[in-house]
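Write out this protein's structure.
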Amino acid sequence: MGHVWIGILGLAFPILLFGSIATYIKINAQNLRLLLAFSAAYLFGISLMHLLPEVYHLPNTKWIGLFIVIGFCIQLLIESFSSGIEHGHTHLHSDTCKTHLPYGIIIGLCLHSFLEGLPVYQLPQAGNHFNYDPQLVLGLAFHNIPIAITFVALLKEHKTGPSKIILLLVTFAFMAPLGYLTGYVLQTVGLSHWESYQHYAFALVIGIFLHISTAILFESSEQHKYNGTKVLMLLLGISLAFVLS
């Protein structure tokens, strides 16, 4: 059970830390775009080099492919509520938007985070005593840091007070751990075909990751052109994914 708490902290702490910093300190937009580019490259890398090989251990690869497509489509649906905050967007449609909380964005973001947490739990294996996937936890941490900063910036634009920002930030921070604990509970009550569930949950998240990472990679530059710093961030993200996969 101790490793479960480590996994929960790994998922929640980066959001709480960087979101809290962004509540009181304005983050430079250019630095945020670079962080988004790095996180997108890392997500894309672990999706192809770590998660895909894991899920294709099952013989019925056609179903795995279907769940990847479902995950991709689910993210498309979520973005109809979240306005693309998962890849750095903070759109205000008019000045009247600043007078109320963006409930659609909050709900969409929380659902997105919950789904990402579903495959984090894994059964301990020989030579690996962790009951979570370290690469996936690290990928979600990199992914959620710029999202937390963007989320806080959006709430500040909506004239949300610091105490309410922290409350919403805590809610967001614990959605991925809630997905992780859901997987843990399902396993501990003796869910049949647990390995199949884990692989299909992985497939859903791969679809989400592929959508998010490619959207960020295309949107993180003007006219799809990259300067040297962004190219370096992309290479660092891919290299880290390769080393850790």
